[in-house]
């Protein structure tokens, strides 16, 4: 038993040294790589062709040779739809940095689309910063301004800033248990002023303008500052409500703009959405009428970012395994 313990300690030390050396090598390589301009590329995937290949593979497995040849002959004679549907995926984070890619994708679509085409945005977001999601909504507004039909599909969640973007659409579809709404504004921050005072640490801040800073993390907040900050939140909420009402006139805005969220079934009754349907079902229904293309803007990642993503993936996987172990116990 003592031998196994010593052997385990030896392996742990060896692994630690190997990881440390590897980390040093990665840092040296990253430091030696000359920074280049960050550029991305637009990728177009023919989803109609992918679906046809799927059909062909399944039919080949299910039918005998004669029946398959007849099906294939009929499929070859089927005319290709002339109208197009462009699909954009938007999975928004708190800081809404994904809007940068959305801008490129919308610009690409508008460069080739006409009024007979359509756009589907598969949107997933729990919201985030006001200015980021405001810009995201403006990007989708560009599609509406060109009179190109815009549909937003929500399979999981479009809340707060996510719903701000979704309400731009001519039509919102949502899965039955997708989460929608949360038309409200929230701001929260800790305050360490008492802790600093307890440890005899002074915090000094200099401003010009009475309300340059209303509430702070380290300073001593005043009732007047808190009241001003609250008024700013209320004003932002009013703008949010007016924005949603302008695009979804059928809504009772006072009923839905309470900061609450609803599942798809409830959202349909409240007219937050137009149809209960998953994005998959919607796409399949469009394949007979339109050629479907997915548009995606991909930014090339640096070596450091790739290493970071790999490390993050390992940590995430480890945490998930730990959660599973905890659950099954």
Main attributes?
329 residues, alpha/beta, 2-enoyl-CoA Hydratase, Chain A, domain 1, three-stranded mixed β-sheet
Describe the structure.
By secondary structure, the chain is of the alpha/beta class. The chain has two domains: 39-182 and 260-303, 2-enoyl-CoA Hydratase, Chain A, domain 1, CATH 3.90.226.10; 183-252, no CATH class. 52% of the residues lie in helices and 16% in strands. The chain contains twelve helices and ten strands. It has helices at 2-32, 47-62, 65-77, 99-112, 130-145, 161-166, 193-198, 223-247, 253-256, 264-269, 279-287, 303-328; strands at 40-46, 83-91, 118-124, 150-154, 157-159, 171-174, 179-181, 261-263, 275-276, 290-299. The strands form two sheets. It has a seven-stranded mixed β-sheet with strand order 1-10-2-3-4-6-9. A three-stranded mixed β-sheet has the order 5-7-8. The longest helix has 31 residues, at 2-32. The two termini are 27 Å apart.
Task: Sum this structure up briefly.
The protein has 329 residues and is α/β, with parallel strands linked by helices.
CATH homology-level superfamily of the largest domain: 2-enoyl-CoA Hydratase, Chain A, domain 1
Which whole number gives the mean pLDDT? 85
* SS elements, strand count: 10
List the uncertain runs. Answer: 322-329
Q: How many structural domains can be distinguished in the coordinates? A: 2
State the separation between the terminal residues, measured CA to CA. 27 Å
CATH hierarchy class name of the largest domain: Alpha Beta
Proportion of residues in helical segments:
40-55%
Spatial extent as radius of gyration = 27 Å
The helix/strand series, from N terminus to C terminus, equals: HEHHEHEHEEHEEHHHEHEHEH
The outline comes out as elongated
Strand coverage percent:
15-25%
Helical run tally: 12
């Amino acid at each position: 038993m003592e031998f196994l313990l010593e052997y385990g300690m030896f392996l742990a030390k060896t692994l630690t040294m190997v990881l440390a050396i590897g980390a040093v090598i990665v840092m040296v390589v990253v430091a030696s790589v000359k920074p280049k301009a960050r550029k991305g590329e637009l990728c177009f995937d023919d989803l109609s062709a992918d679906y046809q290949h799927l059909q062909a593979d399944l039919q080949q497995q299910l039918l005998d040779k004669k029946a398959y040849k007849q099906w294939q002959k009929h499929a070859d004679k089927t005319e290709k739809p002339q109208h197009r549907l462009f699909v954009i995926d938007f999975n928004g984070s708190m800081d809404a940095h994904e809007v940068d890619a959305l801008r490129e994708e919308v610009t690409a679509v508008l460069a080739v689309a006409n009024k007979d085409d359509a756009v589907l945005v598969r949107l997933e977001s729990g919201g985030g910063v006001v200015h980021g999601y405001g810009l995201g909504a403006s990007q989708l507004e560009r599609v509406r301004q060109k009179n190109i039909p815009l549909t937003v599909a929500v399979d999981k969640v479009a809340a707060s800033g996510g719903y701000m973007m979704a309400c731009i659409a001519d039509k919102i579809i949502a899965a039955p248990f997708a989460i929608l709404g949360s038309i409200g504004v929230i701001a929260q921050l800790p305050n360490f002023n008492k802790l600093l005072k307890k440890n005899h640490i002074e915090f000094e801040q200099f401003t010009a303008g009475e309300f340059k800073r209303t509430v702070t993390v380290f300073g001593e907040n005043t009732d007047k500052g808190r009241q001003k900050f609250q008024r700013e939140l209320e004003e932002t909420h009013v703008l949010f409500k007016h924005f949603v009402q302008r695009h979804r006139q059928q809504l009772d805005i006072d009923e839905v703009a309470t900061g609450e969220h609803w599942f798809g079934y409830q959202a349909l009754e409240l007219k937050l959405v137009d149809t209960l349907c998953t994005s998959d079902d919607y796409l399949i229904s469009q394949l007979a009428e339109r050629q479907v293309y997915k548009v995606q803007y991909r930014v090339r990642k640096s070596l450091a970012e790739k290493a970071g993503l790999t490390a993050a993936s390992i940590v995430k996987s480890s945490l998930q395994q730990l959660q599973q172990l905890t659950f099954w116990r």
